[in-house]
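Researcher: Before we compare anything, I want clean individual predictions. No alignment, no superposition, just each chain on its own. First chain goes here; please echo the sequence and then give the C-alpha cells.
Model: Echoing the first chain and its structure:
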Amino acid sequence: MGNLFSMRGRIGRREYAVITLVIGLISYAFAFAIGFVSAVSDGDVHNAGVLGLTVGLAGCVLQGFVSVRRLHDLGRSGWHFWLFLVPFYNIYFSLVLCFTRGSTSDNEYGPAPGRHGAVMVPEEA
C-alpha cells in the first residue's frame, strides 16, 4: 500500500478502492465503538463528540492523501481534490476516481503503477 501519508506518486484503481474501503470501515468501527461506549457509560457525551470528530477528520485527511495520488494517476493536479467540496459534482468526481483508467505511460507525477497498483516517487534532494 505504500506510504498513506504521502501525496507523491500514483496509485491505481484497485488500490484506491481497497484503501478507501479500509479507511471507511475503520472510521465507522471507531464511530460505533465511541457511540456504544458513550451510550453504556455515564461519561460526558461532549467528549465522545470531540473524539468522534477527531476520528472523522483523521479519516478525511487520509482519504485526501490517497485521492491526490489517484488524481496523479489520472494526470491531474492534486488541487483538483478541492472539487470534492462542490455539492453533487463530488459524486461524479468520486465515480471518476473509482472507474477511470489511469494513464498507462509515465507522466509528470511518476511512472505508471505496476501490477500491484502503487508507485512511490522518491523525494527530491
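Researcher: Okay. Second chain, same rules.
Model: Second chain and its structure:
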Amino acid sequence: MYVNLAKINSTSLGFAGLSESAAFRPVQYAGVTSGSDPIAVFDTGDPTTDTTVLGVNSSGAGTAVNETFSSGSLYTLVLAGSVDNLTNPPIVLSFTDDNTLPPTGFVEFRVVDASIWLKDNIHRDWMCISKPATSGHPQISALTYQSIGPGYVQVPFNSGNPQITVYVTPHGDQNLHLITYSSTQNNEQINTLVIYDTPSGTGYSGTLLQFTDEN
C-alpha cells in the first residue's frame, strides 16, 4: 500500500490483516505527508508492473484515489470492498483517531462496518458492548456499510475473563446475535473493531478485526 508514493507496509498485507504498525499493541502509526495524498494498492506492492487493486500505478493505469490528512492528526485506514464485486469495488475508508484516554474504570470502542454481505442481506446492524452473558441495550445502532457509527463509545471496564463481549445483531432484533466477540481489555483501553466478510464474499465473518489504538 502506498500513500503519496511512499510504501507504508514492508510486508504483504493479507486479507483481514493489519499492517506492521497496526499490529502492535497499542498501534504504531506510519508517517505520511499532510494534505491531499494519492493512495494506491497493488497485488504485490510493485507500483510499476503489478495489477492495481486501488488507485493509479506509475504507468497511469487505474482510477485516482486521494485522501486528505491534516498535519499532526492520527488516522485509521481500512481497505474495504471487493475486486470481484462491480457494485462494491475496492475502496479506502479513512477515520480520524482520538487517542485521549477514557476515565479510569472505562474502556472505549468504535466500530467500522466493512461488510458488503450484511449491507446486501441484513441492511443495518446494532451493536451491544457489555460484560459477558448480557445483551443490554445497544450502544451503537443503525450502523451502515462504510460507516463508523457514532464514534467512540465508553463502557465500564471489567476485570473478568472475558472482560468484554460484543454482540452484533440485526436492526431491531437484539435477541439474534450475528456475531459474538469476546475481548480482553486493559483499563482505559481504546479499540477499533471492524465488521468484515469472508474471503469469498459469500457471507460475513463470525469474528471482528480488532485494533488496540491505545493502552
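Researcher: What stands out in the second chain?
Model: Helices lie at 116-121. Additionally, The CA atoms of residues 166 and 181 lie 5 Å apart.
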